[in-house]
Amino acid sequence: MSSPKDSVEVIPDLYQIRIPIPIRSLDYVFSYLAVDGNDNLLIDSGWPSDQSRKALESSLTNIGVSFSQVKRLVISHLHPDHFGLARLIQEQSPDSKVFMHRADAAGILKSQADFDRFIDELHSWLGTHGTPDYLLEEMLKASKETLRFFELPKPNVLVNGGELIEFGKWSFEVLATPGHTVGMICLYDKRSEILFSGDHILPTITPNVSLGPRYMGNPLGDYLDSLKGLKGLQAKLILPSHEIIFFNLRKRIQEIEYHHEERLAETLRIMAKSHSQSAFEIATNLHWNSGKWEALSPWDKRAALMETLAHLEYLKESEQIQEIRDAGSKKIGFALIKKREK
Known about the structure:
Layout: E1 7-11, E2 14-20, E3 28-36, E4 39-43, H1 50-63, E5 72-74, H2 80-83, H3 86-92, E6 97-101, H4 102-105, H5 112-128, H6 133-146, E7 157-159, E8 164-167, E9 170-176, E10 185-189, E11 194-198, H7 219-230, E12 237-240, H8 249-271, H9 279-285, H10 298-317, E13 321-325, E14 332-336
Parallel strand pairs: 4-5, 5-6, 6-7, 11-12
Antiparallel strand pairs: 1-2, 2-3, 3-4, 8-9, 9-10, 10-11, 13-14
Helix pairs in contact: 5-6, 6-10, 7-8, 8-10, 9-10
């Protein structure tokens, strides 16, 4: 059974539910339940494991709700700590509406073979960016130990952003906030001035913004644009997926923007020391709040490398650096673009 601290009534008829997850650096994820009479909406569903299922089910029972009474499920983005129990809820509440941004829904892998191909593609791609073979093997092992082909959700309501999810006293506006994933969404209730910020805005840590083989674009550019779009929002209470409930949205956005400005400047300083460097070489020389590069786990090194690549892509798009490809080895490096003297 869950303890009282695992479910908290934030305001009347709105509950925060704490669900354990097997990611050491995070430890848990928050789901949120909005209630109006017998009508219920759940935001995110926790990790696909018995431990997460028991925690979610027990908290819902303490509130007076069963899986079969979840009428609406909003999946903020396509990461397993957010969609993990969606299929279970769909099976027990077959008429439920499951909301997801169409960009993330398009990335749902449909089979174990698809998943295996994706994992192999990801690690091969990291190899082209300078990751040594021994570390690729460690990263691959860490991925397979933590991840597997989960039973994925089947969203039946695809959103783009701007839609309203209304029932009873609640009216949640869907906000498209790409960056953490291409289809990340937040929810905003204007009446209560509450923002469900998901992984988009966290109170003390910054969400991982990664470049990967299937999010090629400019994820950091998307993320920073998404932050700007929320600056004018009247939100007196921000409910994130991790850490703690917080206030002062504009101040937190400015802090995150400053963090990325500093990281971009640090990247350029490192690149100024050499003609050309791989993303891996640059990542090993950056400062990481979770510890020195050597002390990071293979899982965290992969995340750090993909975040470094997002910053490099941003600098490339802003024409501050250039990509250099070695035709023989097919390795990719980066170099500063020297400005011509006038």
